[in-house]
Amino acid sequence: MSILIKTADEIEKMRIAGKLAAEVLEMIAPHVVAGVSTNELDQICHDYIVNVQQAIPAPLNYRGFPKSICTSINQQICHGIPSEKKLKNGDIVNIDITVIKDGYHGDTSKMFCIGNVAPHAKRLVEVTREAMFLGIEQVKPGATLGDIGHAIQKHAESNRYSVVREFCGHGIGKNFHEEPHVMHFGKPGQGEALKPGMIFTIEPMINLGKRHMKILKDGWTAVTKDRSLSAQWEHTILVTESGYDILTLRQEEL
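Given the sequence above, the corresponding structure tokens read:
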């Protein structure tokens, strides 16, 4: 599969899908509090995407995934399945949203801190966010995928964290996952060169402890092997003629 360069019409549709995904995270934010179950968050997001946005929650039934969003708490790296588990004071949780509108996908995720979060957990969340933006800042025509991965890895490791290697960012458009694979580690100048019209996600998963992970019996949830905390942030990025455009930017980030 080769990397698809999006047409002007496709980019416009991706802008709309990206904006909708961002709006779901804005909408759900006041509900992400101690005592709420991740199932409740899933239901609220599902209803909003389907009824208000007239869109489709992409994760639902994707390769058998049973819910409309992913919720990954504390040592869960990604692909956590919403359940009756309630969030509690001190938790950190990633909420990952992907919507399909007019056949195109918008994909984004954000970390939430519940109540009084320990300084070491808060710092992991913040450094992971910084790492994502450092990766995004590398994006321009002629730069490489390795430039993105290197910027993320360097920032994470300079803070004595580790980068999960089993999961990566990905091209996105009509399909949830397209070429290229966007690694969150790498060497400058290596890998595919970026061209205007490419759209992909940058979504680093950074661990407080070692990088190694395992998948739980549910077949989806990835957790840190050493049970250390993990954080992730994600945006969908368009390569423009002069740099990049974040298609999933939220109001709070403007």
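The first helix runs from residue 8 to 28. Try to locate this feature in the token string yourself.
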